[in-house]
Structures are given as C-alpha cells and as structure tokens.
Specification:
alpha/beta, Rossmann fold, 2 domains
Length: 332
C-alpha cells in the first residue's frame, strides 16, 4: 500500500477559501512526484455538500469529519477531532493552508501527536526518495530547504500563492466520501466562540481578491490615492498599499501587502509607485501577472514584474482608466 497524503481544507460558514484549493494543487503535485495516494478531509458540522465539492477533484477519498462541536471553530475542538481522524487513518503527510485559523490550531495538534510542523512553505522537492520543503527566512531574503526527521504523520502548511488553486485537477469520477463522526467531550473545549467578527465595511480580505491595484510612496499625497481607486473600480479590483502608505494613515492597515501585512496571489497585481522592497515583494510575488509602474528604471519591483512601465504614474494611469472603461463599454 502506498503512503497517503491528507489535505485538510478549511471551510468558513460552509464555504471553501481559495487557499484550500491551492493546497489541494500542492497535494496533487506531491502525489505525482512521490507516487503516494492523495486524500482530503474537511471538519465541521453538516458539511456533506462541501465534502462533495472536494470529491470532484482528483483525490482518492474525502473524509467529512463531523461533530456538533465543530460547527463553530475552536482550537480545542478541531485538535480533538482531527487527532481522532489522523490516529485512525495514519497518513504519512498532512497538508494544510497557512491561514490564520490553521496557524492557531496546528501547533496544538502537532504537539498533541508528538510531531513537528514545517510551516509557511513555498514549494517542495522530491530527491533521492526524500521529501524536502522550501520555506522563506528573514522576510524572504533567504530560502531554506527543510525535511522531516521524526516519524509520520508529518505536518506542513503552504503559503498563500505558492500554488495556483485553478490548477487543481478534477477527477474523472467523484471520489467516495466517508463521514467520520468524532466524539468531543464538552470538557475538552475551554473557550466559547462568540459571534463571528465582522470587520469594518472598508475592510477587505485581499487574499481572495483576483485583481489588486496597489500604491506606494510614488503616489506622493493621500489625495492622489483617488486615482488608484478609480483604476481599481474600473477593473473591478481591490485597492491595496505598501507599508509606508498604511503607516502614514493614508489607507487602513488591512490594505497593507507584505511581510507585516497580507500575502496575496491575485490574477492581476498592479503596483503603482512601489519601489519593491523585499518586505513588500514577499507579500505579492505569487501573483499570476504583475504590472509595475515606476519612474525609476532601476526599481527592484521590475525584477519580478511581468510588465514594466517606466514613467510617471500620473501620466500613465488616467488614460489607462479611460481605456479600461472603453473596453468594458462604459465610455469615458
């Protein structure tokens, strides 16, 4: 029997996030490289529909880990439920998306099983029969190759944007779904979840955005951010910024991209007046297409840009907005 890879996807309010699909893509790539069997699991209550959605992908089996205690997320309940699953199924490798929720409970889960976690990975290699994971260090200045020395199960999380969710292969037929009812004692849960936190209306989860227009110090003044907003609106995208813009209070901190902000991987990332400090690049280099506008031809952002436009953004962006509107049939 080949070893098994188990991808534990994340659902929130009965919806899978994009990073979960990316992790399935990662699992499929590792399975192809190693010859191991790929399975998936999702935890919650009444999650048959989500399990069926995952079963449409190229996986051998899907486990719906069910309990009323898993309806609302708590680290204690998820640790208890997933530990029961892992103990029963004995996968070789457990993959999860590197989300805030996973970062909250996976240290507890791994410790409960006497194991370690290689977190925030950006890639992997399979060399001489050994599985090696790549993760960044020192805010992306260095990349380290790391492997496990302990016994399975091994735990690893993948950074948002490390793989493309739209590349997750579909199966020729739906995979079987097994419902795993787990027993979680009331005494095991030490905190009581309140209502799900709803951020302010201007807040946005940029990790789910498909188009992002991001501004840096080249925007010069706060009032000039309006031009970037107009471009984002024309494209149907979201507005973001580098750290100096948010530190100045020109945009809320939830709009910050980078090592101390959000890590994003949209289909299109437009960088306006952003020089490209490593702290910013770490947060957006996984974008599918990067367009950078900067008057400095030596700006580091151009090293990773797919399209580089050397020039003053105030000369370039207004006609670009008009062309986008015309292309969409909106006129001027």
């Amino acid at each position: 029997m080949p070893d098994t890879i188990l991808v534990v996807v994340e659902q929130r309010e009965a919806k899978l996030n994009r990073v979960s699909w990316e992790t399935i893509t990662a699992g499929q790539a590792i399975a192809a490289a190693t010859g191991w069997t790929l399975e998936a699991a999702v935890a919650g209550a009444n999650i048959g529909g989500i399990a069926a959605e995952i079963a449409a992908k190229k996986v051998a089996k899907v486990y719906a880990v069910e309990s009323p205690k898993l309806e609302r997320y708590t680290p204690d309940a998820f640790t208890a439920g997933l530990k029961q699953l892992l103990t029963a199924k004995q996968p070789k490798l457990v993959l999860m998306p590197h989300t805030y929720q996973v970062r909250d409970f996976i240290p507890k889960l791994a410790t409960a099983m006497g194991r370690a976690v290689i977190s925030d990975c950006i890639g992997f290699k399979h060399e001489n029969g050994k599985l090696i994971f790549t993760r960044q260090m020192f805010q992306g200045k260095l990349a380290a190759d790391v492997s496990f020395t302990n016994d399975a199960p091994w735990f690893a999380t993948f950074q948002s944007g490390a793989f493309r969710g739209d590349k997750a292969e579909s199966g020729s037929t739906a995979a079987p779904v097994e419902t795993v009812n787990v027993e979680i004692a009331d005494s095991a849960i030490r905190n009581k979840p309140q209502e799900i936190f709803k951020e302010a209306k201007q807040a946005v989860d940029l990790t789910q955005a498909e188009i992002i227009v991001s501004v840096g110090r080249g925007i010069k003044e706060q009032k000039n951010i309006e031009i970037a907003k107009q471009l984002a609106d024309a494209l149907g995208g979201d507005l973001a910024a580098s750290r100096p813009i948010c530190d100045s209070g020109w945009l809320p901190m939830d709009r910050q991209i980078g090592s101390s902000g959000q890590t994003v991987a949209p289909k299109l990332y437009l960088a306006l007046g952003i020089s490209g400090a490593i702290q910013h690049i770490v947060g957006m280099k996984g974008s599918r297409t990067i367009i950078a506008v900067n008057k400095d031809s030596e700006a580091p952002i151009f090293e990773i840009a797919d399209y580089a436009i050397v020039g003053n953004l105030f000369d370039i962006v207004p006609p670009l907005i008009e062309e986008v509107k015309k292309a969409k049939g909106g006129g001027s």
